[in-house]
Automatic annotation (TrEMBL), chain A:
Region (Disordered): 262-286
UniProt name for this protein: Peptide/nickel transport system ATP-binding protein
Keyword Nucleotide-binding: yes
Originating species: Salipiger thiooxidans
One BP term from GO: transmembrane transport
Cellular localization per UniProt: Cell inner membrane
TrEMBL record, chain B:
SMART domains: AAA
Organism this protein belongs to: Salipiger thiooxidans
ABC transporter domain segment(s): 300-552
Keywords: ATP-binding, Cell membrane, Membrane, Nucleotide-binding, Transmembrane, Transmembrane helix, Transport
Stated family: Belongs to the binding-protein-dependent transport system permease family. Belongs to the ABC transporter superfamily.
Cellular component per GO, a single term: plasma membrane
Protein name from the UniProt record: Peptide/nickel transport system permease protein
GO biological process: peptide transport; transmembrane transport
Record lineage: Bacteria, Pseudomonadati, Pseudomonadota, Alphaproteobacteria, Rhodobacterales
Sequence ranges assigned to domain ABC transmembrane type-1 in this UniProt record: 68-257
GO molecular-function term, one example from the UniProt record: ATP hydrolysis activity
Pfam families: ABC_tran, BPD_transp_1, oligo_HPY
UniProtKB/TrEMBL annotation, chain C:
Keyword NADP set for record: no
Transmembrane regions: 12-30, 104-125, 137-160, 180-199, 238-265, 285-310
InterPro entries: BPD_transp_1_N, MetI-like, MetI-like_sf
The name this protein goes by in its record: Peptide/nickel transport system permease protein
SUPFAM superfamilies: MetI-like
Organism: Salipiger thiooxidans
Amino acid sequence: MTDANAPLVEARTLGRNFPTRHGLLGRAQDVWAVRDVSLTVAKGETVGIVGESGCGKSTLGRMMMGLDSPTKGSMSFDGRDLSSLSSAEMRKLSRRMQMVFQDPFGSLDPRRTIGAQIADGLRTHNIVPGSEVKAEVARLLEQVGLPTSAAERRPHEFSGGQRQRIAVARALSTRPDFIVADEPVSALDVSIQAQVVNLLMDLRRDLDLAMLFISHDLHVVRHLCNRIVVMYLGRIVEEGPAEKVFGTPSHPYTRALLAATPSLHPRDPSEGDKVLKGELPSPANPPSGCPFRTRCPLAEEACAKGVPPLSPVGDGWRAACIKAAPVAEGVPA
Amino acid sequence: MKASTRKLILPGTIVALIIATVILAPVLPLQDTRGMDIPHRFAGPSAAHWLGQDEFGRDVLSRLIWGGRASLFIAVGSAVLAAIAGTALGLLGGYFRGAVELFTVRAAEIILCLPPLLLALLVVTILGAGTWPLILALTILYTPNYARVVYAATQQVRGLDFVTAQRAMGTHPLKILVRTILPNVLPPLLVQMSLVVASAMVIESGLSFLGLGVVPPTPSWGLMIRAARGAMEVAPLLLVWPSLALAGTILTFNLLCDRLQSALDPRAVTAGGALWLRPRSREAKKPVTPVAAPAEAPLLEISDMSIAVHDMELVRRVSLTVRPGETVALVGESGSGKTLTGLAMTGLLPDTLRVTGGSAVYTTRDGTAVDLAKLDEEGIRKLRGDEISMVFQDAAASLNPVLRIGDQLGEAIQAHHQISGEALQKRILDLLRHVGIPDPERRHRAYPHELSGGQRQRAMIALAVANNPRLLIADEPTTALDPTIQAQILQLFAQLKKDTPGMGMIFVTHDLAVVAEIADRVTVMYAGEVVEEGPVAEVFARPRHPYTAALISSVPESGAERLTAIPGTVPSPRNMPTGCRFAPRCGFATAECESRSPKAEHPAADRVTRCFRWENVT
Amino acid sequence: MLRYIAFRSLVALFLVWVVVTIVFLLLHLIPGDPAELLLSTGNVAADPQAVAALREQMGLNAPLWQQYLDHMAGVLTGDLGASFRDGAPVIEQIALRLPRTLEVILAASLIATGIGVPLGTYAAIRADGKADAVISFFASASLSTPVFVVGSVVILIFAQELKWLPAGGFVPFSEDPVEHFKLLLMPAGTVALSLLAVITRMSRASVLEVLQRDYVRTARAKGLSRAPILRRHVVRNALIPVLTVLGLEMGTLIGGTVLVEFVFNWPGLSGYLVSAVDARDYPEVVGIVMTISVLFVFLNLVVDVVNAMLDPRISLVR
């Protein structure tokens, strides 16, 4: 396990801009979905990305998969810079990176059988000889806990949870090293969510996968991930080991997010005034200085001066706040 | 076979018959289309000439069939050619976009700047009349239509996750286009095709009618009508036959197109209309005679209520009680019937659903008891929005996009109160302020799309509480919101509860943690039935039904290394288990559970569970 | 809003330019010499010298780009050239005939909308009932019957058999208003019939769709009674796509009344185009096509602007 510390996937000062134009003659306006994000994922590690809608977590996931190219910064996978690859090389490399999507009804082609869709990856990358494709599909289905007879059926015959398992089997078919899971359980009912979360945990353990797990559900992320990244308006505001970030959060936004998450064990009603005021600012028009300062309970004049850099709070733990300090609270463990 | 597929048989058969007839024209025992018989010109139908003879004594029937052959050849030919060209342009433009889009779809769309008949006229003038110039003209004319349809469909499909998954898998773009995208854009393509055949026939016959299309002596329906017009006084029937043939064929193709559309894309066709809009069509429910309610009566008492679509029960024998000032959470997974139960209380069930049994007795403001399940539309309308009101999940869709927020609010107040002008204005502003919308003096003039998600939900809540209702039903009001906004809205509900102590609330949700935050009592539903009921704290601390217990431990909050997952899936209403509906997924199930439906048990005075083995659960 | 209109107008102008250029090029690049065509009668070939003289006179000998520039300069100053056939200014003929075509289209649109919207709404409310089946069948049938068939049959019935109306022709309004309207009735009614079918079907589909919308349920949840829900929430929202379709259909009709004008002998713009096309009279064809496309593009612009006014969401998008 010597290279366990070398990152498999590395993002360096990644930025993604979606310029929008108002009318043909209007001035193009920069809308940064992701800004200045540096992040690594090591082999066998599960990194969780949390944040509210519009924080750029899905865009970041797509860039880390090579599906979207960054406007700024660079992405490298196993030491190779993705932007330097030709499209044929990229297609070849994509064997090692796979994705699981949120919507169990949109992620499978309604017109083709399950088996054919799982076999696509096997055939494209010649994972197994043609004669063994069928057996391999059956093995993959069994691995995600579905009967082998499922291969002959079409997506509409399955429930949401089963489809999500199929999507996982499809992602596993190319024997990837890295999986991006974009809200894979958000569309599922609670009891089914647990099935899929357990499956992902087993796979991570058995296959030593690197995983990027994107979700807005703090409980699931905490349960599944080693490291957690909290994003706000396209930037990382806090990043570190799961038990630190959610146990003693050091950024006020992380604290607010934890306080806002409903719990089976309701907090003291006096904490009601910890609810954040105001709305999420538009990414097209972010506040000057610290992006969070318009809603931050600790904001002061200095916060408007500039964007606070991600500075170390502890070992492998960083936060972007001039008043960053661990505060014991958050969800009861 | 589905009804929509069955409906395809009639137009499909006629189209097949028409096409077979014109294809077989050379082998059918038809008379020569050019054989003149001047002495018998304008002769009526006879044994030799079933449809009579025209101005040169030629046989009308055979001219009709051969004319159809010419028309259909041109129409189908150009429809197919245009389909091929348009599909290629649309696929490329829709998938690659950018510059490719400009040179394919956008370039083709310039043709749409010219009125269609005019364009056909131009091409025909340049190339001269005849079959092939017509086909070319119609192909050019319809290519942009296909390109547009395929482009739109491609754009839609390419954004779907299964296409992204193919890209992520490293599949070659051309393979994705052919294998994944093309099959998925076929349905709109087919519909467009039958539409184009019909439309091409109209233009072909029109040009032929003007003498600019098919060249005589080749028979064509347009030409036949043109000739018959000259002889209208002598032989009006000559006008009738080709007109009937032409209109009939086009009608059949149009019909095929309509039915194809509903068979291939059921979502695009919304059937049913609205029963509530039809004054007398609702089965005559007798107006309920109000009875004075007993003094200690609860606000709402649902007992043994069932809801069914046709004869399929979606909700079975649900009982629920709401007392003044109490918040009852109705919790369950999708398909549990929780939303339907809420909708039934306001008479807003979809038209195909009916309350088939039980009662829902509501105590009105003036102390009388009415059964909501038996009230007629007018009776329940008077209660809706005034005494019982509802907050829906998707505020963006639930607010009228073309009306200002203030006007939508004013309308809700005026539905039940004689109030207008400044008094109304003041009430609107007060309400907006009350639900925490900043700057109401300006915001009341905003359209829904100008508000953020959280503010829209606040506006939705303002609508619901506009007339100080006594019973508020909230259907997943925070599900679509971000955590920090959800917390704000939950806080607003808590505030409303505090400000209006007598108001009862039913809070429908799938989120147990939200239940813990907001509710006093909880009713857990599974597969259309109530499985457990009781005070929130007690139920969560000690669930008395295996489903509730499993649900609680499947929330990844416990800190356990492995989550408790409930195996299997929720049964569909078509094949419900005969005994306890949870038995197939239950770890406690015995033979008895599978054969017999459990009765309601009372583990404590204010608790209910439907389980034989409740004593063994926790 | 003003910026939106300005932007759309620019796009419209660009489209008009593209269309005029395409038509000009099409007519000048195709084989066939108009001078020769004009001078030849029947099968007798024209005198080559006369042809050359005529070519010179019509400016056909100049390089194509110069002809194009001259043409565009003319367009900008409102001079569309003179007819090859009689030398009369094309713009005068267009000015005389265009209002007659517009009159038919406007009358037809009024009839079709006035009847179609209520009929479609009624059919939607009664969806899948008997009334709906009758209305829908009637709409499909009249949509499927080409105008010249309807026109011919209408003449057969009302002029030929019943003798209620004259079979066709035109009398200026200033000469005899009553006769003018009597003559307008059949062409306008014929055009209205197919337009009516389109509007009815569209209204029905649109109302059905709006009825499924959540905001209609919200309106019911407020306790509003049927009439205000129907008026303020259902019909108002359903009208937006209907008006779009009406605008597009009217645009199509500007060039599409050829057949009706032919059938009823109505001396409008489209009939003029057919004869110009027949005679290869370049200035006439280009002038008419340009007029029609300008109107077509302008109508689309009006439709977009009206839509933006009815639907507050649109102006934000651009």
